[in-house]
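Posting this for the archive.
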Amino acid sequence: MKAIKFLSGAMLLTLCTSLLILTPVDALEQRGVREVKERLYALREAGKDKYELTHTPTIDWLVSGKDRAKGYDFKLNKGEDYLIVGVCDSDCRDMDLELYNGNVLLDFDREPGSTPYLEFVPQQTGYYSLGVTIPSCTTGQCTFGIGILTKTGVPEISTKTLAKVINSKANYTLIDSRKKSEFNNGHISTARSIPYTDMTKNGYYLLPDHKDELLIFYCWNEACEWSEEAAKIAIEYGYTRVYRYSAGYVGWLNDGYKPCDCANDS
């Protein structure tokens, strides 16, 4: 399984917080369940993520003896970027996840630890099986939770990718979401000026006719939210290939590219 380095432990458990705290536990209201929930509550505000819950969370337990593994079926949609997260109580020293399509093992996390996770993009819509194993439990019963999330927000592209798009013959529209005056003082080559404020008022009439055309939005830098908000509006209008160049105009210049020396592209 490929290592996923971008998630810190705090961020990972923050993702889990919203997964389990509202799940009906009924007969499962025992010490392990409360402990798992308390761990998640404690880390609720530990960080900001870009994931949202897509399935009803599961809280369950494994008992001593041979019952060290359980399986669950989930429907996953083609092309979605899923994060599958597990968390268990303090009696659990190790928890493993295995993802299957039928009898085919697709991915797994068998590394030591009590918070396994998988990142998975299905190639087809269908039901997938998740196997849960607790190899090490210090008591007769360990409680665990499973959550399935998907990434939210607008997909991002790098400076290198944007440069390739600009130099290619691809059919695309690069949109500068900054103010018109800022655009006129310097912008990325081939960009059109559609300020975010204009997108909120009549963006439908300012975008290309074809909903499958590649749209790339940018503004100043990663801290500038105009490009992401404008891109979300385009997605709401039904455009299917929408991206954000989050580095923005500042990032373009910092990576050694020059501002457009052409006349106003808009």
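Confidence is low (pLDDT under 50) at residues 1-7, 17-29, 40-48. The two ends are 47 Å apart (CA to CA).
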